[in-house]
């Protein structure tokens, strides 16, 4: 799963929103759910992830929206 560092909110359409200003990290389903259950700060501290999140750039934003990334 691609987890957002800070929640983007229920009901938002991830295919139409811009993800700029968010940070993401690939997590397995179990750890993604754990992140939501315990909260991002506790999750980061438990797994030592303070500087591991990736800022969304143009290419990643297109991928998250389901757009092609043709060069």
From TrEMBL:
It comes from the Bacteria. It holds the Pfam family HNHc_6. This is DUF968 domain-containing protein.
């Amino acid at each position: 799963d691609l987890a957002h560092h800070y929640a983007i909110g229920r009901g938002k359409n991830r295919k139409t929103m811009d993800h700029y200003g968010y940070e993401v990290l690939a997590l397995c389903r179990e750890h993604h759910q754990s992140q939501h259950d315990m909260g991002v700060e506790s999750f980061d501290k438990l797994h030592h992830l303070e500087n591991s999140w990736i800022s969304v750039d143009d290419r990643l934003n297109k991928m998250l929206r389901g757009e092609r990334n043709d060069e």
